[in-house]
Amino acid sequence: MDRFATLLGVIAILLWSMSVALTRSLAESLGPFGAAASIYTVSGIMVWMASGRPTLRGQSPAYLLICGSLFVFYMVAFSLAIGLAHSRQQTLELGLINYLWPCLTLMFAVPLLRLKVRWWILPGAVLAFAGVMWAISGGHGVDVHQLMRNVHSNPVAYGLAFGAAVAWALYSNLVRIFSKGKGVLPLFLLATGAVLWALYFTYSSTRINLTWPAITELLAMGAVTAISYQCWDMAMKKGNATLVTALSYFTPLSAIFIAGLWLNTLPGASFWPGVGMVVVGSLLCWTASRSQ
Predict the structure, then answer these.
(1) φ, ψ dihedrals at 88, nearest 5°
(2) Sign of the C-alpha dihedral, residues 70, 71, 72, 74?
(3) Which of 7, 38, 75, 118 is a plausible cystine mate for 288, CB 3.0–4.6 Å?
């Protein structure tokens, strides 16, 4: 496995962690759909300019159709799920469902990539996900009964969030199987932007207000998105996908921490037990998937 590609996966995780603070202020100017559509459009153009024109020749139809559809579906479904949330608590629960994808990626790698694992990969994945739940909920956990009531009150949003988690887990594995050569990541990003623009003009009532701060944030967020997804794609194709996926459990935790620094609201003491559970769970997943 390519160690440099693995390092790129770690860089992608760190960049994703930086995106929360930028997206929050950008959405105030462009609206949720406008912000997401602008980000993916700008990032697609940036990746295109950096890597050159993507070529469809020689690419597997399965990669273009299956991986492309999964990529676009994940981005759009998660955006819609968050947009349909009825409250902040519901947004939190939808986010937790979305962060099932690292666990699902490892689970899907067993049949799809014929990954040989030891028995403790399951408790490791459970422990890491429990750490995510602990940290994001402020150490209070999630009320299961309330969660079920919320699912019945907004089944579309919860279905989209779970579908997004499954889609990204499948994409992360299948891109390793079907991709040939450099891939067509710019086209996937631009296709996502096109779908989100269609949704924006169809459903959004928020008018885009392009101020200079918004333009600066958009360019910064576009660059972060472009670099992070390009790094992730390379890591999934050539790097230690299992290790990178295990480390991806840090994404929601590090995102909250960085956003706390940016907004001068550092997480409380209840945040750190969640970090510990994620670290131990990720290490268990990694050791369980290492060569015998």
Answers:
(1) -65, -40
(2) positive
(3) 118
